[in-house]
Amino acid sequence: MRPRNTVLLLLVLAALGAYVYWVELPHEAKQAAEKKLVALERDGVTGIALDYPDHSIALEKSPEGRWRIVKPVAADADDAAVKSLIAAVADAEVTRTLEDVGDKLASYGLDKPEVTVGITRKEGGALPPIKVGKTTAIGFSAYVQKGDDPKVYVTGGALQSGLKKQIRDLRDKTIITFEDQDVQQLELTRGSDAPLILDRLDAERWRITAPASFPADSAEVRALLASLRGIRADDFVSDDAAADLQAYGLAVPRLKVSVRLGKDRAQKTLLIGASRTEKDQKGLYAKRAEGATVYGISEYSIKNLDKELVTLRDKTVLSFDKDKAAKVEVTRKDGLGFTLVRRGGSWHIETPGEGAERAPTLLRFPEDVATMKGSEIVAEHALDLAQYGLAAPDMTIVISDETGKPLGTMIGARGTMTGPDAKSYLAAGGGDVVYGVKSYSYDRIDKKAADFREQPPTPIPTGAGIASPAPPGAPEIGDETGGEADFGDEDLGDDSDDFGDEE
């Protein structure tokens, strides 16, 4: 292409782009704006008033940008629900305009609107009140009036459905808020029992300090805190500070959960009360000790909250610093024990045997030993280990560092039961706590020397025939076109040559 033609083409494209940018796009934007029921910048809304025939709701936006309900109660609002409400107004488009309605407002449901919306803005003042009446007989569109404008507008049904709100639809359903890293102490009290108290030791570790002292299972504590934070209100039963808590089972709650936060150890407490049934759905009453509101919550929401002492205890069988482990010696009753050593950051098996080392299996074994947890504590102060098979254990695992200093010992015995309820037993050497573990967990550490090497292929029996290549054109064995030479044919035509004859 000639340079002159290229320049002309570029000029045409530039002119076309300028036309689209300066003419077409503004025209389309203007047409879209003309279809809108109101011109509304969503982020600029600072107040909303909703007036229904039987109730009213008012919301205000704080200087920090948080929405609060100010009528009929003072409460935090659900930001997502409020934004959805604003979007219903901002996105409403006019599909038809009725100019001459005269005294027919009643037929459109606008003499007594289903809802009247008032919106105040940061800039531009308040919008004219928006009255929403009946829906059309076909298409479920809604009839709308704006302020003193005599015209009636027809909009999509999303406006009416988006504005149908009860107070509980707009309230913040979060019951208790905190950051996990701020929690310094956790306290659970079940009924009139003594409290179960856990204290944070550092960023990762917790310890049970009452009613007795035990290491805590950090994963269980994290799950409990997540469950507490995640509880949401299904209903707002009462906001009366003078309400009779006995009626909700909250005078002596079935469960009380408290967290102490930060350096000042500020306390937040959740009370869980009696069961309730609402619209055939079972739930519970709940209340913050620091507030007046009684909530309805689901029963499922406290599934991971109501934990007992044994659940929160750390059931790690053998605690040691796995980064210091340099040698693992496994002695087995069946004589198939082994020794693993760490050299150059990698684990190797010292026990002689055939086959290349299985690096992933070698790496995983010390990790499995370090992280092995009991599924239950079957004996707290076991005096007789024989009843668990641990007096003469099936295996003994000794962990030591690079100097040979022992870091810990684990003993194990596989249980005699079979089936899904079968369990095995583990204990730390020299300890008196016996842990029960599921058999599939026990399998992780029940290893033999051969498990750490690639097994050689099975040798072919002496005298076994090796098929020779067939001459060109000869039918293949198993080929259905091969006639009598087809060994897959069940009838070879001669009983004496029938390879399938068992006699």
What name is given to the CATH topology of the largest domain?
Immunoglobulin-like
Would you report the number of β strands?
A: 26
The helix content, as a percent range, equals 10-25%
Under CATH at level 1, the class of the largest domain stands as Mainly Beta
Structural class: alpha+beta
Shape: elongated
Mean pLDDT: 87
Widest sheet: strand ordering = 4-3-2-1-6-7-8-9-5
Overall tally of domains: 4
| Assembly state (oligomeric) | single chain
* Uncertain segments: 27-33, 474-503
Distance between the termini: 89 Å
The Rg value, from CA coordinates, equals 38 Å
User: Which band does the percent of strand residues land in?
Assistant: 25-35%
Report the CATH architecture of the largest domain. Answer: Sandwich
Count of DSSP H/I helices = 8
The biggest beta sheet reads: 9 strands, antiparallel
What does this structure look like?
It is built from eight helices and 26 strands. It has a nine-stranded antiparallel beta sheet with strand order 4-3-2-1-6-7-8-9-5, with helices on one face. Strands 13-12-11-10-15-16-17-18-14 form a nine-stranded antiparallel beta sheet, with helices on one face. An eight-stranded antiparallel beta sheet has the order 21-20-19-23-24-25-26-22. It is α+β, with helices and mostly antiparallel strands. Strand 10 and strand 11 form a beta hairpin.
